[in-house]
Amino acid sequence: MNRLASVAILAALSFGAWSASAHADGTLDGRFDIGGRSIKLKCEGSGTPVVVVDAGLGTAPAEDPGWLGIAAKVAPVTRVCLYDRAGVGGSDPVKTRPRTSKDAAEDLHAALKAAHVPGPYLLVGHSIGGLHAQVFASMYPNDTAGLVLVSSTHPDQSSAWLSVLGPAKPGEEKAVTEARTFISTVQTDPAKNEEGLDITPSLAQAKQLRSLGAKPVIVATHSPRFRMVPGLSEPMSIKLEDATQRLQKQFLTLSSNAHQNIAATAGHGLPHEDPAFVVANILQGVKAVRAQSP
User: What is the pTM of this model?
Assistant: First the structure.
């Protein structure tokens, strides 16, 4: 299986206390100590709710042109913060691996507190960052104003894909065999992804989020035309994408105030393929949160 296919499947985290530049207009750019290591945060704009971005696997949004462009469009409306997970971009690595979504959520919460960025937060999670955002919302409900899930990983995603691919069969497509092997391996071996993320417990942690009540949940889904695994036959590709789209729709059960928007043509890489779509979904979330404010 080529790297593109592998990444697509896996994608389908006081002075001395902090070092940063901060300004009255909400601009902040620096590394914040969370107990012996530092996490990079980059914020701009002002207003509430504060939008906090958790990007896809291996992506450092505080340095990523796509996410920086999105933040620049959101900042005139409200404050927005980009966060680099441990070992990615400007954030220090951890000595102990593997990591889980719970670890990523704890890091983000600690960094926001260290940077004196008050909540509650509208969490924007893309791909695996969406899984981390779900765990954050479960762990810190009082600090969560809502969710914007951008082609987010679903807690049942791996099992659903394996169910579609089915058990190994003689003479099956090579791409099917490779996809099944990759999904099975990456679930059990954190060394197979660049952040050392332990997928299986992370999926279980995300399942702890049962409901956000009436807090806004915006589900920004990639186009059904997207093909997750290059090389698969079209019938199998359609089955795989149909399963993914059903899981995306399930996110609507997280809140009585949930809405889904589906991209016309863009695939899983929404922040780079259709940043305007991502901006529109974030601003929809901001508007929904503000509508609930007293």
Answer: 0.89
Q: How far apart are CA 212 and CA 263, in angstroms?
A: 24
Q: Which residues contact 254 (CB under 8 A, 6 or more apart)?
A: 147, 209, 211, 212, 217
Boundaries of every domain in the chain = 3-292
Cα angle for residues 141, 147, 149 (degrees, 5° grid): 140
CA-to-CA distance for 189 and 175, rounded, in angstroms? 21
CATH number for 3-292 (one of 3.30.470.10, 3.30.420.10, 3.40.190.10, 3.40.50.1820): it is 3.40.50.1820
Per-10-residue mean pLDDT for the chain, 294 residues long?
46 34 69 95 97 95 97 98 94 89 97 96 98 98 98 93 88 86 78 83 95 98 88 88 96 98 96 98 99 85
